[in-house]
Amino acid sequence: MIDDVKAKLGGSGKGLKALVVGALGRCGRGAVDLFRKIGLEESDIYKWDLEETAKGGPFQEILDVDIFVNCIYLSSSIPPFVSPAQLSQAGSNRRLSVIVDVSCDTTNPFNPIPVYDVNTTFDDPTVEVTVPENSTPLCVISIDHLPTLLPREASEQFSNDLLPTLFKYSNRDTERTWTDAAKLFREKLAAAEAKIAGQATA
Fold first, then answer.
1. Overall pTM > 0.70
2. Strand, helix or coil at 15?
3. What is the DSSP letter of 16?
């Protein structure tokens, strides 16, 4: 895959700039590693995490790179990283041409990349974003089952992460992972039951 990407880039990714949000997580580290392997200079790989995004978006820095990769875990409302209004205002003064939304929060009301609203597929991997005329085309990759591109590696990684927790199942009444999961299940079940009860009496 590395050789294929490099070939499509004319032999190397040198000269491209990329910004990865969530760079300290597993997906973010993988994105950074890929950029290194295809030839991007270290100084052209911007690695952001909570500290860099704390000030709140939209971020001009995202428009100033070629590729933006979103790898965050979203659990609450945050200002968008990039917005339609920001793209319109930038016009032709935008370098960004590719967004890779690993998080794929298209149906999340807190979606931090509200410039598109569909997931893409391996057969049709990109969706065009509406941008002003005479500006750089912009596309989004939003494949919500990306790990299946590398099934063996994904299976091994997920198994290695999951097994320690499974081995603690016999202590599920005291192990935090299991008690937290049970608590969340009960909360969601109660919310669903309340919703159904409300619909029945409406």
1. yes
2. coil
3. -
Measured CA to CA, the distance from residue 131 to residue 73 in angstroms comes to 27
Q: Are 114 and 84 in contact (CB under 8 A)?
A: yes
d(CA 177, CA 34): 31
Give CA–CA dist 85/57, Å, rounded. 12
Contacts of 33 (CB under 8 A, 6+ apart): none
Any idea which of 2-11, 125-134, 180-189 has the lowest mean pLDDT?
A: 2-11
Q: Give me the sign of the Cα torsion angle 109, 96, 20, 28.
A: positive
pLDDT computed for residue 107 by the predictor: 85
Q: List the structure tokens of 46.
A: 């911007």
**Separation CA 58–CA 77 (nearest Å):** 14
